[in-house]
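Service request form, structural biology core

Requester: graduate student, group of Dr. S.
Request type: structure prediction, single chain
Budget code: on file
Notes: please return the result as structure tokens.

Sequence provided:
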Amino acid sequence: MSILGALRKKHPEVPFCTAVVPAAGTSTRMEGQDKMLLELGGRPVLVLTLQALEACPLIHEIVVVTREDLVVPVSRLCRDFGLEKVSKVVTGGATRTLSVLAGIRSSDPEAALIAVHDGARPFVTQVVLEEVIRKAAVCGAAAPAIPVTDTVKRARDGVVEETLDRETLFAVQTPQVFEASLLKAALQKAAEDGVTLTDDCAAVERLGMQVSLTRGDRANLKLTTPTDLDFGLGILIGRGEA
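Core staff response, request fulfilled:
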């Protein structure tokens, strides 16, 4: 029996889910280092991310979206690390929206759910993955989030205008999971309108669709700066993976 056949037999209630992994950024805040290929605990960051997705039984396929100059190196990494669920490595667009659209268009036509996960979030847990995928399978759009613990101010020109109620504020993580046709339509609309989005939930929200939140994990951080790499290594050491 194929891997896909075995997954369907074990989890018949979850539709075909493709994970689209945007990894096409320029790493401008990583001080000239390409964070996707940086090694952490002996493995490239992108490989750590893909291995976490590969281990999830509810994810059937992975499509990696990267820069043109990284297509061959990333494809080689996927082969060398035995990432069987990675079906394609494709070139991204000029924006995150266009990159995710490229990934969706390259996914299996059978995909009913699309899980968009940052290539630089290598510490996502199986609990976070399974909970958000199952939620999206029911409601059509879901994302993991954690409550904001700091006091947040709204300011203009360096002067505080308002203190926001942190009880209503959440930091949203990835993977963000959607019904496939909904996400594709939302991103196409955003691209046509020339709207700049920082996450994919915003595209769906523009269409009036509600996004349900599931439990995130504070360890599910996005590696953005050199300091984040130190935190990341600490996470791996704590998990006994480095």
